[in-house]
Amino acid sequence: MCGIIGIIGKGEVSPLIVEALKRLEYRGYDSAGVATLDNGGIERRRAQGKLDNLVGTINAAPLSGTIGIGHTRWATHGVPNEINAHPHATDKVAIVHNGIIENFQSLRAEVTAAGRRLSSQTDTEVVAHLITLYLDQGLSPQKACAKAFARLEGAFALGIIFAGRHDLMIAARRGSPLAIGFGDGEMFLGSDALALAPLTKKIMYLEDGDWAVLHPDGAEVFDEDNAPVTREVRLTALSGATVGKGGYRHFMLKEIYEQPQVIGDTLQGYINAAERTLTIPGLPFDPTAISKLTIIACGTSYYAGLVAKYWFEKVARVPVEVDVASEFRYRGALMPEGGAAIFISQSGETADTLAALRYARAQGQHILSVVNVPESTIARESDATLLTRAGPEVGVASTKAFTTQLVVLACLAIVTAKARGAIDHDDEARLMNALVEVPARAAEVLNHDERLRALAESVSEARDVLYLGRGSSYPIALEGALKLKEISYIHAEGYAAGEMKHGPIALIDESVPVIVIAPSDDLFDKTASNMQEVIARGGRVIFLSDGPGAQKLGDLAAATVALPHVDPFVAPILYAIPAQLLAYHVAVIKGTDVDQPRNLAKSVTVE
Ligand code: F6R
């Protein structure tokens, strides 16, 4: 989280830095700031809240200078106010940081004892003072930084400028991503290639432990032992063009509506619809040889992994373990040498997922990732990557990334099932036909938007909402609840429908809407019984089912939405959409910041 940009330019850099921060705002929007060197002295503008506030501040008091750094913050240490906003500075250095300095308390005590006065509550400011102490001891900027970096524990990406040095910027990466861009007599630093792409296409990704000295005409890179190293400079395919809302009120709504298109685009990467063939070349493991699959991800991507577990176990007959990355990475999981592990991530930068990937790599696993950002760290560190073609997802709540992840995982499950002989040709054809129809069925689901908007009125008045599902609808219940809570701030929980009677049913009364997700599948009657149990206790059920389901039980529910009747295999992809729309409309009714909900960020690069 937190976005970093740095520019050694030929002209005024402040407007370019602000533009780049717009492309980085998805990383955090608690505060933003810019520092430049004006006649050799450090000048800063910072503002609490969204980037627009900083733009106002800079318009009122413009910043001049040909070298500068900028930051958009997702607060870790210290409340999100102006004093805690980056860049942090002394009279000698200004610094921007993404990550967490875990030993900042002891360093803070040390620099304070040495006479430095800190003004913020952040872990970052201490680094500025530590470097300043070393500069005061007569060390060069390079030596002062190298000495300071060696003292830091935790994860960080840093960008640093020095008073009086228009030609020098120092960067460091440990844990948090950082890229260097090469221009013509100009140099750039950024949290990702997306931030740099409109400025230059020549990108170098720093590796873990690297630090770099940037001059107007290039960069020297050192590893964690301070030995000079060479890192590949590649041409990025990213354009970094700012994506618009296309006439929609929010990015989230636009992205929900894009799903028929992007699901089709993603399918096209793997399925030849005319010949009805499905191929996934370059798998890093032999699907016939695997004894188990491990799937790791966070948040919504984790729920995609949970759906995939049902598919792989039921259709491909492969045992699957799914875990959230933050738990998996620390539990010393046993992974037999040569096993297969799948990492799912929209951003490809999630710190916990990346750490789990590195753990799996150290355990000798074959690493496959499902990501939406092709040049992301997770993609670069995998043996093979299956791309979702969702396009840029700007709304913080993941929507089209989720359904396209499901599409990729469904394709992989079919290919695995076929390779292992778990399905015959007819089954394969049936499943593929069902998948090929998903874009059209998704478009039909969107026709229920108005109805879901009307249902959102009553849900918006609730304090708690429950989502129930069985089988592959259970992860959709979890995802529906996550969508609702993250953008409407209403407490919501997803439960396996069969678990209700083991505790949660105590919550049921007429004030708790219960969203039941029940496509007509082999578990429909079981979910129906659980729904009856809820209704018997006065629960107000919103029933998401299909034509046959609605006919059987629609009269019992307070409200029913009858979605298209599809093969149960693809139902989770389609049933995610009404859950997204319901959450969206509830949030709009409640007047929350739908695209940038409080306390969240799009890319979670701290653990
Ligand atoms: C919820 C949401 C998050 C992300 C999670 C993982 O709507 O977007 O739960 O799914 O932070 O992010 P990625 O997929 O980028 O690894």
The assigned CATH architecture of the largest domain is: 4-Layer Sandwich
What share of the residues does DSSP label as strand, in percent? 15-25%
Which bin fits the share of residues in helices? 25-40%
Q: What do we call the CATH homologous superfamily of the largest domain?
A: Aminohydrolase, N-terminal nucleophile (Ntn) domain
Largest sheet: 8 strands, antiparallel
Number of helices: 20
**Count of the domains:** 3
Mean of residue pLDDT values: 95
Keywords: Aminotransferase, Cytoplasm, Glutamine amidotransferase, Repeat, Transferase
Pfam families: GATase_6, SIS
InterPro entries: GATase_2_dom, GFAT, GFAT_N, GlmS/AgaS_SIS, GlmS/FrlB_SIS, Ntn_hydrolases_N, SIS_dom, SIS_dom_sf
Function: Catalyzes the first step in hexosamine metabolism, converting fructose-6P into glucosamine-6P using glutamine as a nitrogen source.
